[in-house]
Amino acid sequence: MTWRARLVRLGIALAPIGLTLVMTMLILLLAGADPFEAYGNILSGAFENPKKIADIAVAMVPLLLCSAGMLVTFAAGLWNIGVEGQMIAGALMTTWLVESLTAPAGVILPLSVVAGLVGGALWGLLTGLIRTYGGVNEIFAGLGLNFVASALTNYLIFGPWRPPDGATMSGTDPFPPSAWMPLIGQTRASLVSILLSIIALVGVWLVLRGTYWGLKLRAIGRNSRAAQRLGISTHRNMLLAFIVCGALAGLAGSLQTTAVYRRLIPQISGGYGYLSQLVVLLSGLRAEWVPLVVFFFSAVQVGSPRLELRMQLDSSLGGILQAGIVLFFLLVRGFRERWHAPEKMEEGDGPIAY
Amino acid sequence: MKIELEDIYKYFGPVRANDGISLTIESGVIQGLLGENGAGKTTLMKILSGYQPADRGTILLDGRPVHFRSPADAIAAGIGMLHQDPLDVPAFSALENLALGSPGGPFLNRARARRTLEALCQRFGFALDPDAPVSSLTVGERQQLEMVRLLALGVRVIILDEPTTGISAPQKALLFQALRQLSAEGLAVIFVSHKLDEVRELCSRVTVLRQGKVTGHLEAPFATDDMVSLMFGQVLGKYTRRPIPLGGVILQIEDLAVRSHRLEVRGIHLTVRAGEVIGLAGLEGSGQRLLMLACAGLQKPHGGRIILNGQDVTGQPYPTFLRQGVAFVPAARLEEGLVPGLTLREHFALAGNTRGFFIRWEEAEARTAQMIADFNIIGRPDTPVEALSGGNQQRALLALLPENLRLLILEHPTRGLDIASSRWIWHRLLERREEGTAILFTSTDLEELVEYSDRLVVFSGGKMSAPLDASRVTVEELGYLIGGRGL
Amino acid sequence: MDPLLIETAKSVIASSAPLVFAGIGEMITERAGVVNLSLDGSILLSAMAAFAIAFLSGSLLLGFLGGMLVGMLIALLVAYGSIALKQDQVAIGFVLTLLCADLSSFIGKPFVRKPGPSVPHWPIPGLVEIPVVGHILFDQDLLVYASYLVILVAWVWLFYTQAGLRLRSVGERPEAAFARGVSVNRVRYLYTAIGGALVGLAGGAYSLSVKLGWSHRHTAGIGWIALAIVIFGGWHPFRVALGAYLFGVLKSVGSLLQPGFPNIPTQVFQAAPFALMLLALLLVSGDREGMVQRVPRLLRPVVQALFLAKPPAGLGKRFEQG
After folding, report:
1. CA-CA distance, B133 to B144, in Å (whole number)?
2. Which residues are CB-neighbours of B168 under 8 A, at least 6 positions away?
3. Residue B50 Cα to chain centre, angstroms
4. Is pLDDT of A259 > 60?
5. ipTM higher than threshold 0.95
């Protein structure tokens, strides 16, 4: 490939970033702020000291887990927007376990992981069932169940699980120390969480590339008709995909309670479910790119609150950066494909006759 | 109005759908356009009616060249086409379909549409319910509605593409009467068909197409021999097949009735034995595909029975058929048979033994390599299937079939392939025959049908003929039968 | 009639007006074959824009126009991304939902909890005098009257005009529409813009009337409900409006029942309508043909009209000319 072609390719790859920066620059100027100061604050907010970098690791865990799960459902051609609810379900299951069982950490912690997996898996299965047997589009099934999970959480926090002194928006009483995931030093990062999320991503990558089930899912996602002809059961495999994605999301939710907050709070899923959708879109549905994108998104998550502290700007600028890049990525890709659109070969005479 | 088509060329990739066609159509004439599927009739008419542009060539109306950018342009010039599957909106009522695209003020004038509909229906003896949703109408009625619509828009040329497929006999009589009336009033009617009898009954002139070219023009009265030989061409020498002893009955079809939204086949009786090759002849849309889908378990019949290997599998789900050793190879290779985006190796991995967790890549690779060699597939294991040529996709589809099949059903197995590839594919298929597999296949190539089948059945308008001994049928006879005679 | 009931009905009609705008707007867009999944973010951003512009300029009209413009631009972006750039409608819509929500929070920060103009109350003289109904329907503000108008105009437009016929044909079977001289993609862009403008109007209706002012994630969740009521409403203006009012009733019932159940936290009552909406959606989706067969013949048309929801057959499908 010529140097010029290489340069063009690089330009196209970087265009979304450039466009996003331009867009946010304009917005910042509109808000009367110095764009470079804002970017600087985000960077310093994220990378200033080791503790902050550890915070990035903390934010990466739920993103990695949920993104890994979504890769599975996307492979099968499904839009699992219900990840938020599945995260919550895992958190709820874990909280229930902690509230009901008194046992040493060696027992509770592993069980909490299992609880998270199971809770999320069940919620994912529910979404899948509503889709396949209820005929409701999985987007609405997922969304509706997200609302239900959220409402359930509030009910529990302000109801049966409220602290003895009275219910507040801070959530339940803190978990007993036996239910605390061990953290690294003075940071808020948990080695167990990090390991689990890495294993999950690698596992998903392996499954999608190297197992029969992963191959079947990909076949269903590309051409479910041909997959059926080859003897693959579409319903069963789709449900399994929902279960796996739900389990991973549930694990993320569970770790949020035992490692990060050490209690159940109303916003336990923290929008990570929706954010992971963006991650997967930006990664082009490829597991190899997920760690990099997750790192970038997490850094932005960690650095954005500083905007509020130092510049009285809303931290949702981080969200604008994240969503903006994905939007421009999609648009640029569309432009590029339009340019290189090949001549379409069409069918000859008429529709398929019987 | 005089229409002249001069040197029309239309390519779809390497396929020459129209290869230099010139044709003149006069008003007041019912012009027939005859030819097999793939001959280029529909493509040509779509060009004339503004649906697609020609790659080369001109259309002249009364000596003036015209250029249509859309069907609406053509209608404005007075040319309208009635498609095989009328382009109406199923959810709308007949009135609304009529009103869509007709001139008028901003408000929907249902009363006026109603008057127009009634007037035209009366003129031709149609009986259409204005308020019924079009999805509830029969194909014949939808055609009538579309005709009414085109006439209301003032077309002077009306093109009908295979209009008698799927309509009842009384509806056909009504249609022909209407067409004669229109022709007498000075309109030009173009009647595209493959049915020799009807063309003879209706048309005063006929042009025959074959493989994108005009093979001849005939004036009424038409001799059937002339029509057939222009349509189907030369006869090749017959292939001598090695007769093999047939085994037990594999497939038994009793009084089968299958339905699609367009067509219904009924009263099908057929017995197929191990090692037998049965060819399903007939023009597309006559019911062969429906029968094949039913035999493969992909379409539930609404009447009759299907018995495989002695077991009644009527209405059973697809996996049951798979277990009984049935396989279906579709004509739409990429849409129905292969998974675009996946490589050959991945396909073979899926088709092989999928027990176990991890993919045994070496096993899949070895199998793929062997199949590539065996089936002469031009491609590598890591080639994505959409990058293969049509012929190689077909070979891949065949290679993916399980061994020891009892019944192999193929839809147009050699469509789009050159002679050498076709011969080779048949060589492999006949090998399976010796293992006891029964083969059911459709084709529009009469030579192929006669050459490779043990027995032949002919489909026409949803009806199946009695099985014929292929060694005793000539291509001409087959042509007659497909044309609807003797059925 | 019980005054409390009348007051409740009145407030339900008033508070549902924005949802009517959003629902009808999205119904129009989907009738053209485009799904605008960005509704939730769209409404947020246009609500903020409408409030900000009205606050800064002092003009309600400018505020509403601004909101409508924002809604229209976002919808056009979805249409462009999917028609011209051939990207997945759902992906673009989803990303825009998140982006617009964040944009609304960021740009709207200076306007949080500021008092702003509100649409004045305007009882219609004469009509207000009608017992019961008059008080419920005609003792409202301009926006509510506009919502009635939108429902009626949408109905007349869809079923009694040529333009509406063309719109419906594009959504049902674009090939047939093309065959009759309808410019399919142009129609799609046009009605997406109109639908988007109505969605923007919905946003303005929140921040300048029903839920005055602006705060972080002020109207969150409403966009998803609007998408749901389009399906629930079978893509028919009357049913969509019914869905909007039903949701309003559910919300009111929540706040009415609350005092009776002190043990159940407020949040449950707030979230319940959303969950119930999903249930309603489940009821009307899927293959209900079997259910209809079991209903006695006389009632069948009623049941079909009320419960069956068949989407425009060409929804979400791409149309390639030729």
Report:
1. 14
2. B138, B140
3. 22
4. yes
5. no
